[in-house]
Amino acid sequence: MQNNYVNRGPKDIEYAGFWVRLAAYCIDSAIVWAGLLFVKLAIGIFSAFGSSIFDAHLLFRYSLKDIILYIFQVLYFILLTFGTGTTPGKRLMNLRVVNADLSPNLTLVNVVYRETVGRFLCGLSIGIGYIMAGVDREKRGLHDMICDTRVVYS
């Protein structure tokens, strides 16, 4: 299948498949990992001064440190997707998250639900929720189906 970017009309939308989305996610994960190093460093400095509040288990087996790291990680995806419709990884792959009607106006509730509950359910199913993007006609993962979003080439 050959891509023709010259004569594409507004109705000719190309959905992003599994592999390109995986590449974008790997780029974003590397950025988040690097950013979380600074957060871990700050937590380590506070812990070095005798504060053990970050190691106390608050929620099941998760400590305050785990919760803070998760919040920073999820904020990266929520704020960038809501603000620009894309993340740096998606931008490098020329991708954008849009609504089902292909409008780029995503609501904050929809983005939060997609990036938290939707991704949790995708991972809970041993990644099958993500693999669904490779077989669905509109290349939707489970989190896209739940939130009625699409990832398209911009």
Task: Explain this structure.
The chain starts with 17 loop residues before the first helix and ends with a strand. The chain has a two-stranded antiparallel sheet. Strands 3-4 form a two-stranded antiparallel ribbon. The protein has 154 residues and is mainly alpha-helical. Helices cover 57% and strands 10% of the residues. The relative contact order is 0.16. It is built from six helices and four strands.
Please give a handful of descriptors for the protein shown.
single chain; two-stranded antiparallel ribbon
The helix/strand class is mainly alpha
How many angstroms separate the termini? 19 Å
As a whole number of angstroms, the C-alpha radius of gyration is 18 Å
Compressed to H and E, one letter per element, the order equals: HEEHHEHHHE
Please state the average pLDDT score.
87
Task: Please report which band the strand proportion falls in: under 5%, 5-15%, 15-25%, 25-35%, 35-45% or over 45%.
Answer: 5-15%
Strand segment count: 4
Strand order of the largest sheet: 1-2
Q: Which stretches are poorly predicted, pLDDT < 50 over at least 5 residues?
A: 4-9
